[in-house]
Amino acid sequence: MLNSVTILNFDGAYNQQTFYQKHPHQTVDFESIRNANLLCDRENLTMMYETLQKRRCSGVHYLGSGNYHYLSFLLQYNISKPYTLILFDHHTDTIPSPSENLISCGSWVLNSLDHFSMLHKVIMIGVGEDAKEHIPPSIQHKVILYTKNSLPDNTQTLLNEIETDSVYISIDKDVLNRKEAITDWDQGSMSLQTLLEILKEIIQQKEILGADVCGEYPVNPTNEYDLETQAAIEINNDTNRIIFENIKRWENYKSRNLVHYSRNKILQKHS
Fold first, then answer.
1. C-alpha angle with apex 47: 43 to 49, nearest 5 degrees?
2. Which among 99, 52, 97, 55 has a CA at the least distance from the CA of 72?
3. Which stretches are transmembrane (predicted)?
4. How far apart are CA 85 and CA 157, in angstroms?
5. What is the DSSP string of the chain?
């Protein structure tokens, strides 16, 4: 299910990126939706949900700027088995929204824990050193925090915290250093290599129910040809490509091994 790319287009952030073009892909257009930046009301969220139900395939979703990270809430909506949310992010996204009618890029994890009974735990990787201060007491028992400085040397230690067989993966590139991603938020200092090493182990050992990536640099008609913007597009495009191609490769490798294992079991049964 992770062999294709779905682009969620709010602001043309991917118009000059090419990482997805040689792979099966589709674009879901949300550019006409007003008042969706940072915050989204229930009416617009429902409209987006209904639109997403009509998409041809799912694959890895690219959400655009971190301002639209709340779309990860919708992408978990139909999960019907116990799962863990694996979040690579410099921020916890657990700050309550200003209104019950609104969801925000900074509240969607809290909303997910409040609304989804199948969501057992959230493991946050790469958050800031002050992350614990932003976790409401009501959900602290369901959240595990790993800052860059507290990541275990052995990835298996982190994997042991995942009690479910299935996971949903969400990546905000603001977790990365600015050599490997450029966003419009304050960023962490994790290397892409570290992110990929953890991601590989999770994909190899768990069922992946879905995955999304955000953290694009905002592009608009006033800045799209600036040298700074063009540099950001190039860096983010390359990182997006590396993330997707590795997810696809590891998922395919796991699938082939499962098929091989199943065939061997059948042969053993009838020998």
1. 115
2. 52
3. none
4. 17
5. --SSEEEEESSSTTTT--TTTTS-EEEEE-TT--S-SSEEEHHHHHHHHHHHTT-S--SEEE--SGGGTTHHHHHTTT--S-EEEEEE-SS---PPPSSTTEEETTTHHHHHHHH-TTEEEEEEEEE-TTGGGGS-GGGGGGEEEEEGGG--SSHHHHHTT--SSEEEEEEEGGGB-TTT---SS----B-HHHHHHHHHHHHHHSEEEEEEEE-PPP--TTTTTSHHHHHHHHHHHHHHHHHHHHHHHHHHHHHHHHHHHHHHHHHHHH-
Domain range for 19: 5-270
What does the block give as tokens for 15?
A: 């118009």
CA dist 260 and 225 (Å) reads 50
Place of tokens 């979703």: 61
Domain of residue 43, CATH code: 3.40.800.10
**For 218-241, b where at least 16 C-beta lie within 10 A, e where not — what string?**
bbeeeeeeeeebeebbebbbbbbb
Q: Are 126 and 111 in contact (CB under 8 A)?
A: no
Q: For residue range 64-121, what is the model confidence (pLDDT) as tens digits?
A: 999 999 999 999 999 999 999 999 999 999 999 989 999 999 999 999 999 999 999 9
Q: Look up residue 167 and give its two tokens.
A: 């996971």
pTM of the model: 0.93
The string of pLDDT tens digits covering residues 174-219 is: 999 999 999 989 999 999 999 999 999 999 999 999 999 999 999 8
How many CB atoms neighbour CB 200 within 10 A? 16
